[in-house]
Amino acid sequence: MRVALVQVSYGDDEPVADRVARVAALVREERGADLVVLPELWAPGGFAYATWEDRAEALDGPTMTAMASAARDAGAVLHAGSIVERLAAPGADGRSLANTSVVFGRDGERLSAYRKIHRFGFGAGEPKLMEAGDELVVVDVGDARVGLSTCYDLRFPELYRDQLDAGATVFAVPAAWPARRAGHWTLLGQARAVENQCYVLAVNTAGTHARTLMGGRSQIVAPSGEVIAEAGTDEEVLRADIDLASVAAWRAEFPVLADRRGWRRP
């Protein structure tokens, strides 16, 4: 399975429409890939809280319409990263926005959507502005079962255990992870691979926006924890051929998952 992770770099001076067109062109260049993955909130800005209300869109809005077209032109399944979704009605917390990822098939049709479950901000930012998702999402991409999560979700290993139990062999993790915690980003991505014996496709943003220096360092991690490819801190596309048969082979060679046990709570 050929994968391509597009580590998008951008700043506040780039108009959103220009960035959408530029990223669509980058996706089209990945013809021959089976799966292309974009970062979190690459169009509206990962830390650009003040602009989210104005830049919010429906799932059939201009950004995802452009991504659907790019997926079709590339002939690839596209995890289009996430947008600030404007919900049809306020959710349980009274918010009308969500951090929502969308996956398109090779024909440009929407395969799946995932609303970020764990909102980053410690009461500000996402928790103040956005509804939390509440659905586990695993989507079939060829022979792979791909679990969807977003950025801050990476700190919550129970989510990935549930994806594992739903049959996941690959985790796709788009992010807008800042440079000051880039070490955590790298470590946690490798940990999720090792503990679940799954591939991890972790794609971050680069550049500086909303006065926040982004971490880059996207990575493709094998089920054994081996880092197959890692990006630097500028715009870059990581490409790799991943062997899905190696997931079952590694789980058989080192059958740690068979030793999972439950326990009684006090």
Q: Any key phrases for this structure?
A:
globular; seven-stranded mixed beta sheet; 27% strand; 266 residues; Nitrilase/N-carbamoyl-D-aminoacid amidohydrolase; alpha/beta; 7 helices
Structure write-up:
There is one protein chain. By secondary structure, this protein is of the alpha/beta class. It has a single domain (2-257), classed as Carbon-nitrogen hydrolase (Nitrilase/N-carbamoyl-D-aminoacid amidohydrolase, 4-Layer Sandwich). It has helices spanning 16-28, 52-55, 62-74, 126-129, 157-165, 182-196, 245-253; strands at residues 2-7, 35-37, 77-86, 97-104, 110-115, 130-131, 138-141, 144-148, 170-174, 199-203, 208-209, 212-213, 219-221, 227-230, 236-241. Strands 1, 2, 3, 4, 5, 6 and 15 form a seven-stranded mixed beta sheet that branches. Strands 7-8-9-10-13-14 form a six-stranded mixed beta sheet, with helices on one face. The protein has a two-stranded antiparallel ribbon with strand order 11-12. α1 (16-28) runs parallel beside α3. The radius of gyration is 17 Å and the shape is globular. The mean pLDDT is 97.
Helix and strand arrangement:
Blueprint: E1 2-7, H1 16-28, E2 35-37, H2 52-55, H3 62-74, E3 77-86, E4 97-104, E5 110-115, H4 126-129, E6 130-131, E7 138-141, E8 144-148, H5 157-165, E9 170-174, H6 182-196, E10 199-203, E11 208-209, E12 212-213, E13 219-221, E14 227-230, E15 236-241, H7 245-253
Parallel strand pairs: 1-2, 2-3, 4-6, 8-9, 9-10
Antiparallel strand pairs: 1-15, 3-4, 4-5, 7-8, 10-13, 11-12, 13-14
Helix pairs in contact: 1-3
- Based on helices, strands and strand pairing, what is the structural class? alpha/beta
CATH architecture: 4-Layer Sandwich
Poorly predicted residue ranges: none
Question: Could you say which overall geometry the principal axes of the C-alpha atoms support?
Answer: globular
Taking the alpha carbons of the first and last residues, their distance comes to 45 Å
Report the C-alpha radius of gyration, rounded.
17 Å
CATH class: Alpha Beta
The profile of the biggest β sheet is: 7 strands, mixed
Number of strand segments: 15
